[in-house]
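FIELD: query
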Amino acid sequence: MHMSEFSVPVLISNFKPFRLIPRDESDIWNPDLEQINSATYDYVKLHRASKFFNAHLPRPMPACFGFDGSLIFPFIEEFKDENFVVEEVNRILASIFLGGVYVESITPSDVSFGMMNLIGYYRHAATRSSNADFHRAIGECDAGNIAAIKLLEPEMIYAEKLISAYEYGNKILSMLPTLSPSLMINAFTYYKQHQLREAMANAWISVEQMLELIWDKTIVQDAKSINIPKRRQFLESQQWNSAHKIEVLYQNSFINESLYAFLTEARNSRNGFIHKGLAPSYKECESALMSLILLIEVSSGINEIEFNKSNLEGNLLESSKPYSQPIYANFQTKGDVSNAKYWRGLKVLPGSDGWEGDYESFPDITLSPLDEHK
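FIELD: result
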């Protein structure tokens, strides 16, 4: 790796979905197909920082978004703890998510070591995931054609929009001290990736964290104002499980009928999963996620903070659409290519039209038709 001697170590986190992050409207990216295929696009821009912002890091130092879609941190002492790094990245991503921009959580392998010089250019030094490998490869003009095609007319999102979403979401999260940002965004990410067991587990833990917060700010707080010996101690005891808290909060009008129904379905599904190994359905996962969204709304109302729940609901409803049909539904349906701008032919394989010449063949890999009469 060749960088200026005046470079500083940084941590580069690569999250999904892939987007380029320009500074503003004047920050142009428009390579043509020939430039993409020949790797003659402006690779320099893919190494450039776009905007620094206050990410409320453990030290008064900024983070920044890179043009290639990276989130970059200074490599401070606290970030020698890998788990803490992941928590911090997911806290920022969860804030952006709450702010209305869909992003997915990261894992430890999505964080890479890198260097940034004094004029704001950076590069990966060591990567550990396919996503980080992709970012490094496009920056070094070393990505294959299939990977590099993502650089042709990619989704773009201005840095200021991400920063604005972060600031809004961080205001919400900062008032939810019991909620784990990583678990919250993991729940939605797993749901989007069809991993329903993991989605339910993360969503329900987040739900219980929110129930505890609301319980403490309402029922327990009310007990402090009434001097009945040991009543507060009883309400703060471990005798109150989630079902009890849901019922009492409902009876005291802190949660409504709709939220009560979502919580009940999610809790039953969670119990079936934990105690009987029953996999949750998409609808049950949606109930858990809707419970989480509405509990955040309740808590925000208690804190007198505006919370736009449609930011999260929209992502949930959008992500559920592809799951309305079985995976095999379109197995034999040809895709609509009427609006295709670019294409290339597939390599010809033995047994396909157009194949010429010899090929390897073995009896034990040769398929035979089934005898329907047996």
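FIELD: remark
Residues 7-171 form one domain.
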